[in-house]
Every structure is written in C-alpha cells, then in structure tokens.
Amino acid sequence: MGFRRLIFALALAGSPALGEPVTVYGTRQGEVAYDADPFGGNPFASAVVAALADSGDDGAYAIEVTTGELSGGYQIADASALGALTLRPAETESAAALVVVFADYGDIAGLPSLPGAAFDAMRVSDALTKAGYSVTLAMPRTAADYRTAVQEFSADSASYDRALVYTTGHGISPDGYGFLLPPEIDTLRS
Fold it and tell me: Distance (Å, rounded) from C-alpha 165 to C-alpha 8?
C-alpha cells in the first residue's frame, strides 16, 4: 500500500437510463499513475475529454481503450459500470458536473503537488462545459473544503437530470478500496 498513487474517478448519476450511480476510474493498482500523455496530462483525463466530445454510445469502451492507448498499456481504466452509455447528456437532459481536485500538497509527507492534476481539472471542466454540463470547479486545500464542495454540489445538482463528479489526487487502495488523500494527511495521521 503506497501513498504515491493517483486516483482518477468519475461518478455519474441521475438519468433514468443510468439508474443507480456509476463509478468509472483509471489508475494502476499499487503503482504511480502515468501522467504524461501526448496531450500533456493523465491518460484517463484525456480519455474522459475524448468521450465527452464523442456523441456515440460507447462510453466505457472509449474510456478504457483510450486510457490504455495513451499510457502504452500501463494505466488501466475500469469503465465497465458505464456500459454503453455516453458521458454526453441527451439534448433533453439538464446536466451538472463537479470537478474537484486535490492538486496542491505542498510536499507534505513526501507527497509532491500535482500541477498535472490542476491542468487536467481545467481540461475536463472545459470538455464538460462544451458537452452541455453546468460545471463547478473546486481545488480544495483540505478534506473539509473537499466535503463542503461535494455537499454544496449535491444540493445544487438535485434538480438536474444528470450529475457527474470528476475527482483526482494522491490516493491509496488498501484491500481494493480507493481512498483520496487530502493535502493535510500528515496532521490527520497524528
């Protein structure tokens, strides 16, 4: 269980076609995530941007294949919960998105800051806006700020047909569960 790992995840909920919320993620279990694809960011973020630009119904396949191709097979995305659904909302759907990213770790506990995560947050936010989402971008500095952003988005997005959350930062995955690490992880462990 190493700390130097990134978690990239999407959670999508709301549309009648979606039913229960689904989670899509792209990382490599127990390894540092690849973060230098030809587009300047993480392969998973690039795959999400590409899937948002595509109006086809192959969301899961597109994310998994694109993440693998852009990382040379190193990074593995699991979008199976998305199935054949597209990330793009239907023209009749109202859609809201939260992009919430831990990027500034200030080198606490040996965790370097993640300027690539901030870059990806901007790219994903732009792609979501172009796809028809009303987007909220948050780069919290603490776990409390993160919780506040999620709670506010939860309340604000309740009236939308579809809600999407994109998140990333350093993380760990003990026993197969992914945990995002806040920048103040050192003080939380004390």
Answer: 11
pTM for this structure? 0.85
Q: Per-residue confidence at 190, pLDDT binned at 50, 70, 90?
A: very low
3-class state of residue 14 by DSSP: coil
Under a CB-based contact definition with an 8 Å cutoff, are residues 77 and 47 in contact?
yes
Cα separation of 68 and 74, whole Å?
Answer: 7
Question: Among candidates 89, 176, 188, 110, which has minimal Cα distance to 146?
Answer: 188
Residue 157 phi, psi dihedral angles, 5° rounding: -90, 0
Handedness of CA 87, 91, 95, 101 (dihedral sign): positive
Residues 6+ apart with CB under 8 A from 61: 79
